[in-house]
Design goal:
By secondary structure, the protein is α/β, with parallel strands linked by helices. The chain is 28% helix and 25% strand. The protein has a nine-stranded mixed sheet with strand order 5-4-6-7-8-9-10-15-14, sandwiched between helices. Strands 1, 11, 12, 13 and 16 form a five-stranded mixed sheet that branches. Strands 21-20-19-22 form a four-stranded mixed sheet, covered by helices on one side. It binds zinc ion.
């Protein structure tokens, strides 16, 4: 078991060493998968790529992205694993089932998974209620084992039964919660309805979330109103679990070294640089018998390469900003409505807005139409301030500002409107 701040040595290795580690593990995974997983051989051969062509993580760009729908089709055509399995069927230890159904295998030996919980501070002495389902989905059992691997005691609760969960938390003096943010919110609301004082009667000190993103306002409520320290992890079931996790800095999620995780242009599959929004594509390196190379999650994020104060050196993904279908590509950058909103809604002078994307002589242009609460504000100054914030978040500049009279932008018109014509 780990001691101290970090769960293993990988978490703090210098970036150059990490790149070597990932390249080496990737070469091994690719060579093994090509030989043992028929689906991998098929997809490489189709792309005209030999295992020896994949020397570094950058070379992954040569390969197609496999999405959930592809995996489902592959499995339907070749039950049960779609040629992804690289071992004899009788050597499969356990099978999980994702919606579809999609069949996934995973051995019980993946101890590295625990670092997502270790970073959140789970230790021996903690009593942790696991409210993820133990049925079909990998969530319940995988998280159960990871909590145990941190030395803590696990309460096998599963989903639902809110009233009973509250009673259990009280009587077992539960210190940690594992589940979704919305379920913890439901529990708290229900407990208060039942007349409980959360801070006085419950011992809960920390919460670990995955499955849905934690809204900043909800995090604030948990932490400030109820003294519950919160952490989130990004997990995807098909490639085998937790891909990135938060540390105490809570500023992005560190990528696990058991995967090569890329942020790519979902249309071209090319890797993007820090701060650029693209699809999270991941290749697992922890299970040679599961030949899933370049799994496209459909989730959009960006990554930060700057060092983190916590001492972990892995790059961080900066939250999930949307789904691949929701993004609008402007001058090569993906903009998601939620991010644009985050940049613009922070200005109290703005009542309503709509971001219009259009084309002028083969160049994408962006116009921000705004309705102001108070017309006397310095409009030029406001445009400069909004653009600075917008560029921080979306990495691209708004070209034009148009202040329109109240009522011009309908309630439902807010967001991004793509008016480009491709003729
Ligand atoms: Zn950190």
């Amino acid at each position: 078991m780990a001691v101290g701040e970090y769960y293993d040595k990988l978490e703090t290795m210098p970036q150059a060493k990490r790149q070597q580690h990932l390249d080496k593990a990737l070469r091994e995974q690719v060579a093994y998968a090509y030989q043992h997983s028929p689906a991998v051989k098929k997809s490489f051969d189709k792309a005209g790529v030999k295992p020896g062509d994949i020397k570094t993580t950058k070379d992954l760009e040569k390969l197609p992205i496999i999405r959930k729908t592809d995996l489902l089709e592959m499995q339907k055509a070749d039950l049960p694993y779609g040629g992804v399995l690289g071992s004899a069927k009788e050597d499969v230890e356990r099978i999980f089932i994702s919606p579809g159904p999609i069949y996934e295998i995973q051995p019980s030996t993946c101890k590295w998974f625990a670092k997502a919980f270790w970073a959140a501070g789970f230790r021996k002495g903690d009593v942790v209620i696991n409210t993820f389902t133990y049925h079909m989905s990998p969530a319940g059992i995988l998280f159960h084992e990871a909590i145990k691997d941190c030395g803590a005691t696990v309460v096998v609760a599963g989903t639902g039964n809110t009233d009973l969960q509250i009673q259990i938390m009280k009587e077992l003096k539960v210190t940690g919660f594992v589940g979704t943010p919305s379920f913890l919110n439901t529990i708290i609301k229900r407990a208060e309805e039942m007349g409980h004082n959360i801070k006085k009667e419950l011992d809960i000190k920390r919460a670990w979330f995955t499955g849905e993103m934690l809204a900043p306002s909800l995090r604030k409520t948990f932490e400030e109103d109820y003294d519950i320290d919160t952490y989130q992890t990004y997990a995807v079931t098909e490639p085998g679990g937790a891909i990135a996790y938060e540390c105490k800095e809570k500023n992005g999620m560190h990528l696990m070294d058991e995967y090569v995780t890329e942020i790519v242009d979902p249309e071209t599959g090319k890797q993007l640089g820090p701060g650029e929004v693209g699809e999270i594509v991941t290749t697992q390196l922890h299970n040679p018998n599961w030949g899933l190379i370049r799994f496209g999650t459909g989730d959009l994020s960006s990554y930060e390469a700057e060092p983190c104060k916590c001492g972990r050196t892995a790059y961080r993904i900066m939250g999930i900003v949307g789904r691949a279908g929701d993004a609008v590509k402007v001058r090569g950058m993906f903009i998601v409505a939620k991010q644009a909103e985050q940049a613009i809604k922070g200005f109290p002078q703005i009542d309503k807005y709509q971001l219009i994307v259009w084309r002028k002589e083969h160049r994408d242009e962006m116009t921000l139409k705004c309705e102001l609460k108070d017309k006397t504000v310095d409009q030029n100054r406001l445009a400069v301030d909004i653009n600075s914030k917008f560029q921080d978040i979306c990495r691209i500049k708004i070209d034009h500002f148009e202040y329109v009279s109240p009522g011009t932008i309908g309630e439902k018109a807010e967001g991004i409107k793509d008016e480009r014509k491709w003729e």
